[in-house]
Design a protein that fits this description.
By secondary structure, the protein is mostly helical. It folds into two domains: 30 residues, no CATH class; 128 residues, Four Helix Bundle (Hemerythrin (Met), subunit A) (Up-down Bundle), CATH 1.20.120. The chain is 56% helix and 6% strand. The longest helix has 37 residues. The N and C termini lie far apart (63 Å). The N terminus is likely disordered.
C-alpha cells in the first residue's frame, strides 16, 4: 500500500493515527525561520523545539549547580557577617531557581503545543504569533496585542 502525508506524519493506508511513524526533521546548518516560508512548517517547529530544549537544559544545569553549591556551602563560619552573606546569597539563589522552575513549566507547555500543533498561534485569537516575538520569547502563547489586552484586564481586575 502507498504512503501519504498526514499532518507531517507518514502513514500507510492501513495504519491508524496512533501507530503513525513520525519522520524526524533535520534542520539545515544555520537555519533561521523566515517570513518567506509557510508559517509553522516542520522546520520552524523543529527549530523552536530545539531552542526550547536547549533553554530547558541550561536552566536545569543551573538548578543542579545551585543544589551542589548549597550542599557544599558551609554555614559553620565563625564570623556572623560571613554566615549572613552566605544565607543571603542562598536565599537569592533559591528565589531565582523558583522563578526558573516556573519558566521550565512554561517551556514544557510550549513543547506540548509544538507536539499538538498549536505552537505559534495565539491562545486567545488563533492568529499566528510573529516569528520575531517567538524568537525573542519562544514560550509566548499570545500575540503582542492579545498579551497587552490580557495584561490590561489583569490590572483592572486586580484593582477590585
Amino acid at each position: 500500500m502507498g504512503l501519504f502525508v498526514w499532518s507531517g506524519t507518514f502513514m500507510s493506508g492501513n495504519t491508524s493515527e496512533k501507530d503513525a511513524v513520525i519522520e524526524p526533521v533535520i534542520l539545515p546548518d544555520g537555519y533561521q525561520p523566515s517570513q518567506d516560508e509557510e508559517f509553522m512548517n516542520p522546520n520552524q517547529r523543529e527549530y523552536f523545539r530545539q531552542k526550547l530544549i536547549r533553554w530547558r537544559t541550561e536552566l536545569l544545569d543551573e538548578a543542579n549547580q545551585t543544589i551542589n553549591n548549597l550542599s557544599t556551602e558551609s554555614l559553620h563560619k565563625p564570623d556572623q557577617m560571613d554566615r549572613a552573606q552566605i544565607e543571603s546569597n542562598a536565599a537569592l539563589d533559591l528565589r531565582t531557581r523558583d522563578r526558573e522552575r516556573k519558566l521550565i513549566q512554561k517551556i514544557e507547555s510550549a513543547l506540548r503545543r509544538i507536539d499538538d500543533g498549536t505552537y505559534g498561534y495565539c491562545s486567545e485569537t488563533d492568529e499566528p504569533i510573529s516569528l520575531s516575538r517567538l524568537e525573542a520569547r519562544p514560550i509566548a502563547s499570545m500575540t503582542v496585542h492579545a498579551q497587552e489586552m490580557h495584561e490590561r484586564m489583569e490590572r483592572v481586575h486586580r484593582d477590585d
